Amino acid sequence: xxxxxxxxxxxxxxxxxxxxxxxxxxxxxxxxxxxxxxxxxxxxxxxxxxxxxxxxxxxxxxxxxxxxxxxxxxxxxxxxxxxxxxxxxxxxxxxxxxxxxxxxxxxxxxxxxxxxxxxxxxxxxxxxxxxxxxxxxxxxxxxxxxxxxxxxxxxxxxxxxxxxxxxxxxxxxxxxxxxxxxxxxxxxxxxxxxxxxxxxxxxxxxxxxxxxxxxxxxxxxxxxxxxxxxxxxxxxxxxxxxxxxxxxxxxxxxxxxxxxxxxxxxxxxxxx
Length: 272
Fold this sequence. Notes:
The chain has three domains: 10-83, Winged helix-like DNA-binding domain superfamily/Winged helix DNA-binding domain (Arc Repressor Mutant, subunit A, Orthogonal Bundle); 91-123; 130-271, Rossmann fold, CATH 3.40.50.10490. The chain is built from 13 helices and seven strands. It has helices at 10-21, 26-37, 39-42, 47-54, 58-67, 73-83, 91-100, 106-127, 130-141, 155-167, 203-214, 229-232, 252-271, and strands at residues 146-150, 172-175, 192-196, 219-223, 236-239, 244-245, 248-249.
């Protein structure tokens, strides 16, 4: 696979990643998937830390950087550091400091998850394209019925959205996969899909969205990166990055974006 010139901007980086992701061998694809879901870590991590997160050797991660067009990890990292001039993420240092002060206690854990949530919320304005957000609100506001889906870790967000829509009188259906039924036939012309999915993407969610879009049903997706296969299909993607503590990620920023969407849609429908 031939390397090309390095992307000069974050959007160009995302386009390159999306273009290459499906054609990479297994180890390099692991790197691509990890980077897509954790772009906020690139500026503050070492190549060894990124490689460990992706589950590959540092040499494989270096090869991935070269495939992306960079001479190495340092050049790729510089792109992301330049994008955070004066304020690139410092949560890694802060979380490490909290761990040193006793993260195994209840109070220590609370402090760490509060800090992770704070960092996630601060990053939300950086990851969400406000123009796409407005377009998503318009699309969902005019829908006859909004079909909501989110599996596994995403399910609390999907169920909350359905609850909020119900309370605001917005017609919505929650697709939970109960009994392994996908209720695809309930989605008809004039409806829209609102999906929540994070890497590794839930197969049920991806299938429902893809099949709906094949029938020209518009879709809005809350996800962890705009480098998502559904982007190629034309879905509107709202990217939200959650900072983790250990192997656990809260849904602080995702729920904030969800309530923003729900209230904006409910308000707009009332004003029509």
